[in-house]
Amino acid sequence: MKGIFFDIDGTLWTKDMMIPDSTKEAIRKLKENKCLVFISSGRTRAFIQDPGLLSLGFDGILSGCGTSVNFRGEELLYKMISNEIVDATLKVLRKYEMPVVLEGRTFQYVDAEDFQGDPFLEVLRRDVGERLLGIRENHMNWEISKFSAVIKKDSYTKALEELSCWYDFLVHGTKVVEGVPKGYSKATGIQAVCEKLGIDREDTYAFGDSVNDLDMLKYAAYGIAMGNGTPEAKAAADYVTDDLLEDGIYNACAHFALI
């Protein structure tokens, strides 16, 4: 049994949420060939709602950088951060002026006033809808497994130092940092799937394009970077395929005789 794991942004779809027809065809053929296909995303489950994406028929969703694992509707793993740690985290992020999105399996939390003028707020409102709640108005009643914070000043590194006892960090250039509970990653999510479903690691394939894909690209037996991926993702991969819009997923699946 083979397990195929796909990042979403920059891998399955473009910035405009367009999924190439060749990608849809590749996933259909993978399922015909009895492969198990999974989303493996930095997004938490509350942020994975698009009907067009979910209609492709994934067998499972690894979300929140490995903090949640779901297989055919059954939750196999979920790491929730305690509200006490979340509260302490918020105090540090506010001290260093880092607007934050708290991310969970059911809800996401943001204080809109912290994101005025940021187009990402509208993306959250569009994609998360009624599952988007306020941080302050839900004080000590959060349900999250990770967070994403905006980098505004060089002093953000001090915030990461103060929070390093609780989190591993994924820094996306000079714009955003993801905080993930220590010991969790997309790689540990794949490992959990393999252990619970009896998939050999030698039969795992991972597709990704950016910094939060590095662990799974290295962990999977076959790490496949998209042609549009970052230099770091390409360096971590075993194989670099074509760009997302140039049939990258389909071509890689054919290259490895998966379809």
- Low-confidence blocks of residues: none
Q: Provide the β-strand percentage band.
A: 15-25%
- Give the helix proportion (percent range): 25-40%
Average residue pLDDT: 97
Strand arrangement, major sheet:
5-4-3-2-1-12-13-14
Count of DSSP E strands? 14
Instruction: Please give the alpha-carbon distance between the first and last residues.
Output: 14 Å
Characterize the largest beta sheet: strand count, sense, and whether it forms a barrel: 8 strands, mixed
The secondary-structure element order is EHEHEEEHEEHEEHEEHEHEHEH
The radius of gyration is 18 Å
Q: Give me the secondary-structure category.
A: alpha/beta
Shape: globular
DSSP helical segment count: 9
Describe, in plain words, how this protein is organized in 3D.
The chain is α/β, with parallel strands linked by helices and 259 residues long. It has helices at residues 21-32, 51-54, 83-95, 119-128, 156-163, 186-197, 214-219, 231-236, 248-255, and strands spanning 3-6, 36-40, 60-63, 68-71, 74-78, 100-103, 108-109, 132-133, 146-150, 167-172, 176-181, 204-208, 222-225, 239-240. The strands form 2 sheets. It has an 8-stranded mixed beta sheet. The protein has a 6-stranded mixed beta sheet with strand order 8-7-6-9-11-10. The longest helix has 13 residues, at 83-95. The two termini are 14 Å apart. The mean pLDDT is 97.
Would you kindly provide a brief summary of this structure?
The protein is of the alpha/beta class. The chain is 31% helix and 22% strand.
Which short descriptors sum up this protein?
259 residues; alpha/beta; 9 helices
